[in-house]
């Protein structure tokens, strides 16, 4: 019976899908997006956690925020609030 050395799960939270996929491949694990077949977006959660030792090729389940909001290269889907009155007050009804 062959004993394979375990690999460390990389820290994927905060990365976009492209970088997370590259880092996972370099570490020797596979990604399993649990929000569907995401091709873009930011990784917001992972299981097992970074630093956990797993068998090579093990799946790391990730959750992905596909809204594009937040930091790092996403496209803004909602424009910023605009002034609505002569005093320049912002519309806060949606906040």
Task: Write structural notes for this entry.
The structure is a single chain. With 95 residues, the chain is an alpha+beta fold. Helix content is 12%, strand content 22%. The protein has one helix and five strands. Strands 2-5-3 form a three-stranded mixed beta sheet, with helices on one face. A two-stranded antiparallel sheet has the order 1-4. The longest helix is centred in the first third of the chain and has 11 residues, at 17-27. It is elongated and about 75 Å long.
Oligomeric description of these chains: single chain
Number of helices: 1
User: Share of helix among residues?
Assistant: 10-25%
Largest sheet: 3 strands, mixed
Report strand order across the widest sheet.
2-5-3
Q: Report the strand count.
A: 5
Radius of gyration: 19 Å
Strand content range: 15-25%
Distance between the termini: 60 Å
Written as H for each helix and E for each strand, in order along the chain, the element string is EHEEEE
Low-confidence stretches: 70-80
| Main structural class | alpha+beta
- Specify the overall morphology: elongated
Mean residue pLDDT: 76
